[in-house]
């Protein structure tokens, strides 16, 4: 490989690059696998190094050491990935295990399932107004809709939810059987 700024020799063409790739990719993956101990990672970094070599093919010299260039780039990519993973692991260790999050309550699951059945505009309006406690004018501003349209979405969404939630644990008017009675 020549250094940037040196006079340009022969620019590696597509066929030459393909031949170079075909002749060296397996060897380079094997070498990086031996260095990293991770076959999938080795394949990934060698492919990325070849992509970079393609971008810099005008600087590659077939008669020099293009394979060494690709190997060096692949190794640097692997080291960079290791550093990112190590940093992430260190941060995760410092933060400790994630807090235990209890499962959602059954009534929450029922409500979310009903909300999923609403058209997107109605669902968004209902959630913003009733769950986020935004006034209608703020819902209109956030959704980019006129206030009248938001009111229509809310009205239709509430009507659909009432129908969907009828006879569920969220229907306050549903007749419930007393505990212990089955029927």
Q: How would you portray this structure in words?
A:
- With 183 residues, the protein is mostly helical.
- 66% of the residues lie in helices and 0% in strands.
- It is built from 7 helices and no strands.
- It has helices at residues 14-36, 39-55, 66-95, 106-116, 120-131, 136-143, 147-165.
- Helix 6 packs across helix 7.
- The longest helix has 30 residues, at 66-95.
- The radius of gyration is 31 Å and the shape is elongated.
- 15% of the residues are buried.
The helicity comes to 55-70%
The number of helical runs is 7
* Secondary-structure-derived class: mainly alpha
Low-confidence stretches: 1-8, 173-183
Number of strands: 0
- What Rg is obtained from the alpha carbons, in whole angstroms? 31 Å
Describe the global form: elongated
Assembly context of the chains: single chain
Q: Write the H/E string, N to C.
A: HHHHHHH
